[in-house]
Design a protein that fits this description.
Organism: Podospora pseudopauciseta
Order of helices and strands: HHHH
Keywords: DNA damage, DNA repair, DNA-binding
Low-confidence stretches: none
Structural class: mainly alpha
Strand content: under 5%
Protein name: MHF histone-fold complex component
Largest sheet: none
Shape: extended
InterPro entries: CENP-S/Mhf1, Histone-fold
Family: Belongs to the TAF9 family. CENP-S/MHF1 subfamily.
Distance between the termini: 42 Å
Number of helices: 4
Number of strands: 0
Mean pLDDT: 93
Length: 112
C-alpha cells in the first residue's frame, strides 16, 4: 500500500465505506420491509464521508491545540461534548477501559 497515492487510498476507503453502508441499509431495509435506492445509499455514504472528514479535522485541531501530535480519548470526549448521549456513551467506554488497564497493571505488579 506504500506505493499507492493518497487519492487511490482515499477512493479505496470511500468504496469500503459505501459497501459497508450499503450492507447496513440492506439489512435494515429487509428488517423493516422497506426499499432503499442506490442513490440513497450513495448520498448517505457521501454524507458520512463528509462527517468523518470534519471529525478528523476537529480531532487533529484539538490535539494540536494541546501541543500533542497524537489524538487521545480526551479529544474524542471534547468532540462529543455537545451531544450529551454520545458523550455519556464514550465516557463510559473510556472509564471502563481505564479501569481494566489499571486492574491488569495491578495484577502484573502482584506477580513480581
Amino acid at each position: 500500500m506504500a506505493d499507492q497515492s493518497e487519492d487511490e487510498i482515499r477512493e479505496r476507503l470511500k468504496t469500503a465505506l459505501w459497501f459497508s453502508i450499503g450492507k447496513i441499509v440492506d439489512e435494515e431495509s429487509m428488517r423493516r420491509n422497506r426499499n432503499a435506492t442506490p442513490q440513497f445509499i450513495g448520498a448517505l455514504a457521501d454524507m458520512v464521508w463528509s462527517q468523518i472528514e470534519n471529525v478528523a479535522i476537529d480531532l487533529e485541531s484539538f490535539s494540536r491545540h494541546a501541543n500533542r501530535t497524537t489524538v487521545t480519548t480526551d479529544d474524542v470526549l471534547l468532540l462529543a461534548r455537545r451531544n450529551q448521549d454520545l458523550h455519556s456513551i464514550v465516557k463510559d467506554i473510556v472509564d471502563k477501559e481505564k479501569t481494566r488497564k489499571l486492574r491488569a497493571k495491578a495484577k502484573g505488579k502482584g506477580r513480581a
